[in-house]
Structure formats: C-alpha cells, structure tokens
Specification:
Blueprint (H helix, E strand, L loop, with lengths): L2 H18 L8 E5 L5 H9 L4 E4 L2 H9 L7 E4 L17 E5 L2 H14 L3 E7 L15 H10 L3 E8 L11 H17 L9 E3 L6 H6 L4 E4 L1 H4 L4
Parallel strand pairs: 1-2, 1-8, 2-3, 3-4, 4-5, 5-6, 6-7
C-alpha cells in the first residue's frame, strides 16, 4: 500500500471511531511519528496530507530540521527530553508533548525566557505508574498544571500519555478514560487558561481508534503509516 493510501486508511478509521461515539472527526489530528524515518519519507508523508510530525530523538529532530524535512507541517517533540538538550528543542518545535517533571518544566520556561518566546507544551502523565516511563503521577497533574500556568514562557496546551502495551483488543480503553478525566479536570479547574488547553494526545498505531473513542484530539501513528521501523 502506498503512503498516501495508508494515510487515507488511518484517517478513515479515525473518522469511523469518532462518529461511533458522536464526535466530529474534524476534532482529531493525525500526527505522523517519524522516528527513524529519513527526510525524504517525512516529505512524502507531508505530501500525502500529514500536517503534524512528531520526533522522539533530539538528534534526529535537529538533523531533519536542518534538512527542512518538515516544511509544510507542524513539528512536535514526543520523546523523553533531557534537561541538557532543552536548548536544542525549545523554540524549534511547535509543541513539546512530553513534559513529565517539574524540573523539565522549569528548564523549558527558563530557556524560553532567554529566547524571548513562549513555548507550547503538554504535560505527560504516567498513567500506569510504569518505572520505565517518565511523566507526572496522576495525582500530581493538577498541581503541575497550576505551576505551568504561573510560568510566563510556557503555554499549557493539554495532556499527553503513553499507556502500557495492551495485551487484548480494547485493553487500553480504561487508561484512555482515566487520562481524559485528568484532562477534563485540568480544563475545569484552570478556568483562566481554558482557551488554550485543547489538546489530548494519546493513542498510537495499535490503539488509536480506542483513544479517539475515549476523547483523544491527537493520535500519534508511526508503524501504521510507515511500516516497521528501520
């Protein structure tokens, strides 16, 4: 199947899942997770209609930025961001999705201040308390949102999460439901920032349809678009 056909097929699945629960398919963005994909592949995805690309690794991100691979699309950083690499990401991407600690949040705000800009971010929640994953604990998310709201050089846009790999079809819906509850709670309690909190990033190649059914506004698909990673 050609890349443009894969994009169309995944969008059709997103649309069907949205309509199944009475949602407008136009509310959901398909983000291409471009880890290990070269600049030519990224350009082909954008030509096929992808409007958002997500990178996991700082080195890949900077290489592809230098190659102008993302021209015509927004760029998000979706991987674990070390504080010593903040300077390579802040101001160079449209959204940092994976802000999972107070230390990282403060570092992004401080570096964005040096650049004189406001960096859009999502707060990452470690929904299943997995030791192998970064992110705020669910009970820490509201306070993290309050802290982000006080920072003049970050703009809180919403919530991101990576649940455990589901063993059965539909196995992650319970996690997606909890993530959405956290997202909605933040919106309701951050009333003065409500206009900018509009992004719920969850769901990947194996479970994006269930994420849509549970309220995702952004789904991150890599292998479903490009095949197995190189």
């Amino acid at each position: 199947m050609e890349l443009n056909q894969r994009v169309a097929a995944i969008r059709a699945q997103i649309d069907a899942a949205a309509r199944e629960v009475g949602r407008d398919p136009g509310e959901i963005t398909l983000e291409a997770a471009t880890k290990t994909r070269d600049a030519a592949t990224v350009r082909a995805a954008i030509a096929a209609g992808i409007t958002v690309c997500g990178e996991n690794r700082v080195q890949e991100l900077t290489q592809k930025l230098d190659q102008f691979a993302y021209d015509g699309a927004a760029v998000h950083f979706i991987g674990h961001l070390q504080t010593n690499k903040i300077n390579k990401v802040v101001g160079r991407v449209d959204l940092i999705e994976s802000v999972g600690s107070q230390h990282l949040l403060e570092g992004i705000d401080a570096y964005a201040a040096k650049l004189g800009l406001v960096q859009d971010i999502l707060l990452e929640v470690n929904i299943a308390a997995e030791e192998s994953k970064s992110g705020f604990a669910p009970e820490e998310m509201l306070e993290a949102a309050r802290q982000a709201l006080k920072m003049p050089h970050v703009r809180l846009r919403g919530v991101m999460a990576i649940p455990p790999v589901a063993q059965d079809v539909g196995g992650n819906r319970k996690f997606f439901h909890k993530i959405r509850e956290i997202y909605v709670d933040i919106i309701h309690k951050m009333g003065d920032n409500r206009g900018t909190i509009n992004c719920l990033s969850m769901g990947m190649s194996q479970d994006f349809a269930d994420a849509v059914r549970e309220g995702a506004t952004l789904v991150r698909v890599g292998t479903g678009l490009f095949g197995p990673r190189v």
